[in-house]
Design a protein that fits this description.
Helix 3 packs antiparallel against helix 5 and helix 4 packs across helix 5. With about 300 residues, this protein is an alpha+beta fold. The chain contains six helices and 15 strands. Strand 8 and strand 9 form a beta hairpin.
Length: about 300
């Protein structure tokens, strides 16, 4: 959408707030919101100011002013905020030089795509992530001068076979036996389906969802491949939706790599391909149907 089309879309949808989302140095979404009447066409070029010194790893306090520049192509109604809210993903810009900020991960991805095209090696690169996660029922942790601990629980955790659940109906997948069981062993099927429904409602393309190998609610939802920046934006929405849907169900999602001892961790397998002139550069006549480029 153009900026003008975004404003018209917001008017037709009776949008009241605009949520400006951007990624910090370590890849976590941050945000702030403004009333819809504060969003004008020139904001898509001039942006909104914010304090860059309060974002970890970014600006020193004496040079804290930064700008978020909304990307009009990312306009989506936020599916979780109570008031009608339009979400816009933003790029970070220096307010003095107007140059893209070097510590903005989205800027790095944009530069990588531009560099690839400038080399002539390929004119398109596609990425398809498979982000795994755990859905837990209880998370507790604390550290003090005289103790430290963490505690994780899940109703389908294999360690709960003997818990008094009045009644305990079983169906607790053992370590490394969580891959593809049908319900009721897969107790979180409906929750993942709701995640998929919300993802589809904002335009994400989903290929599959299933229980993963580990006990205690490990799952995976597979996104359709896309170009780098679009795929990265989609993955941020993916995580945002997984966490917020789980919270509505009274549960919590983590993408941390190894929350449980003795069982599989969570990874993010990423399929990737290079294309030029509509042809895949990794396909060829070498081993496994691959090209020499793919085997390098």
């Amino acid at each position: 959408m153009t900026p003008k089309e975004v404003l018209e879309f917001a008017k037709n949808r009776k949008i009241e707030m605009v949520d400006l989302k951007f990624m910090d140095f370590v890849g976590t979404w941050q945000h702030f919101s403004v009333p819809i009447y504060e969003l004008k066409e020139d904001n898509f070029e001039e942006g909104f100011g914010f304090d860059g010194s309060s974002i970890r790893g970014w600006q020193p306090i004496h040079a804290s002013d930064m700008l978020v520049i909304p990307d009009s192509d990312t306009a989506i109604p936020d599916p979780f905020i109570t008031r009608p809210t339009l979400s816009l993903i933003c790029n970070i810009v220096d307010p003095i030089t107007k140059e893209a900020y070097t510590r903005d991960p989205r800027n790095i991805a944009r530069k990588a795509e531009a560099y690839m095209k400038s080399t002539g090696i390929a004119d398109a690169a596609f990425f398809g992530p498979e982000a795994e996660f755990f859905i837990f029922d209880d998370i507790r942790y604390a550290t003090a001068s005289h103790y430290g601990y963490f505690y994780i629980d899940s109703e389908e955790g294999t360690w709960n076979t003997g818990r008094d659940e009045r009644p305990n109906l079983g169906y607790k997948p053992r370590h490394k036996e969580g891959y593809f069981p049908v319900p009721p062993t897969d107790s979180l099927h409906d929750l993942r389906d709701e995640m998929v429904r919300v993802m589809e409602s904002i335009g994400l393309k989903i290929e599959a969802q299933h229980h993963e190998v580990a006990t205690a609610g490990q799952g995976e939802i597979d996104l359709r491949f896309d170009t780098l920046v679009k795929c990265a934006d989609a993955l941020q929405w993916y995580k945002y939706i997984c966490r917020n849907v789980a919270r509505r169900f009274g549960k919590t999602v983590t993408f941390m790599p190894k929350p449980l001892y003795e069982d599989n961790g969570s990874g993010m397998h990423t399929h990737q391909s290079l294309w030029k002139g509509g042809k895949p550069l990794f396909a060829g006549e070498e081993y496994g149907g691959l090209s020499k480029m793919a085997l390098l």
